[in-house]
């Protein structure tokens, strides 16, 4: 598959799609100059807000412009949708706030396709099931059957396309006049699902050419380079560029931890794990990695600290409970001094065990309980 690079930048204002075919810096300068002459032009204000938000990661300046739009036109739908997109993109505000704004948009104009596109993005960010996302994408496509954005999102979710449909749909997407940096990123997802790895990477590279500051695109290209090109050092460079644009983007921080682990650079891996925990003291991923590393490094007392904290935060996770029990045993030199804690956690683990739990885990619990009870002359309690 091939794809020619085209300079395309797409914006949304007054329920219209606005495209530019110049480099984004030139577009920004042009819009700024026009705003000096027309400071209350809603289209220009919204385009400028989207430029700040999407191309410069400056959502605060974008919010100021959106506020001006809503002062001029309190019922403006695109301004509300931009607010939702900013909240999702930069992880600000509550999920309920995004949904409230989307419901307001539906009350203002339930026939505007962009509402449903943004709704899909919000659902996606909530980590809902693929089946749910697919059902919503199909529902929205039935309402707007020829919509490029909804069609692209549907194809991104639907990983079971037939070969014939794949060729037709990808041709349709590739030739679109709206194939901007975001839709290139989505096209990369689609082709990656179809095992077109080189083409997918090309889409990600083009996406970054259009928007060098897109931390989503930088992260995705870094991941692809590591996974499909086996070039971890190059991928780390792109991950770091992504963090320059958004230092708190969890996916990139997590990917850096894993990549450094893969190349056995545990010092840097630990630094990014600590960074995740500073950002989110309840990160399940970080606790799992800390516990796993403690086993590898045989730092059982350090692991015990994180394991104890993890079961306090995530009491229903059977595997974390088992890790905690294991570390109680290992950190005590297999003597189990804190037998009361071991007993409490053991029964907690058995309470939350699932069908997929191995017999080895249950044997581990039972054998150590027998040991505890025998050491404390409580063996009759076990039986």
UniProtKB/TrEMBL annotation:
<dbReference type="InterPro" id="IPR011990">
    <property type="entry name" value="TPR-like_helical_dom_sf"/>
</dbReference>
<dbReference type="InterPro" id="IPR019734">
    <property type="entry name" value="TPR_rpt"/>
</dbReference>
<protein>
    <submittedName>
        <fullName>Tetratricopeptide repeat protein</fullName>
    </submittedName>
</protein>
